[in-house]
Design goal:
Elements (H helix, E strand, L loop, with lengths): L13 H18 L1 E5 H19 L3 H11 L2 H14 L8 E8 L6 E7 L16 H7 L10
Antiparallel strand pairs: 1-3, 2-3
Helix pairs in contact: 1-2, 2-4, 3-4
């Protein structure tokens, strides 16, 4: 009988599972929306809700707990400064899971997990903006000298 088995193992060792969840938490905090398989999203939802609830209580101990769980200073600051202010009046349910069909290769169920009231521009954080100067430096124009 399966008494007192409270978490899914996802066919991984405990170290691999912990690092997978930590990396997915960091990605979800950074981009505020990620696409993954449905079982991983179901494991991630309670974790992100606990992280945001922990960030809402502003104390040094909570910041240290957040850093120990996330291992990233930038995401810890984002949780305490941005997300905690955004969800100040909300008592829970900071994330949602949207089913998105099946993956092409192995027919695994795919889901999108996102933060409620998310910042739409957060998904474009790593995309570098192209300026006129960088275009001219990287792609020189074809100019031919005219001989007279």
């Amino acid at each position: 009988m399966r008494h007192a088995l409270h978490h899914k193992k996802l066919n991984r060792t405990s170290e691999h599972r912990k690092s997978l969840i930590k990396n997915m938490l960091n990605s979800l905090i950074k981009y505020e929306q990620i696409s993954t398989t449905l079982p991983k999203a179901r494991i991630l939802k309670p974790q992100i809700d606990k992280i945001i609830t922990l960030g809402k209580k502003d104390s040094l101990a909570n910041k240290r707990n957040l850093f120990s769980k996330l291992q990233d200073k930038i995401n810890t600051r984002k949780v305490t400064n941005v997300l905690s202010k955004r969800y100040l009046n909300r008592k829970g349910g900071y994330s949602r899971i949207i089913k998105a069909g099946f993956r092409y290769g192995d027919r695994a169920p795919v889901a999108i997990i996102e933060l409620v009231d998310r910042d739409i521009n957060a998904k474009k954080i790593d995309i570098k903006k192209k300026t006129k100067e960088s275009k001219s430096e990287t792609a020189p124009e074809n100019t031919k000298e005219i001989k007279k």
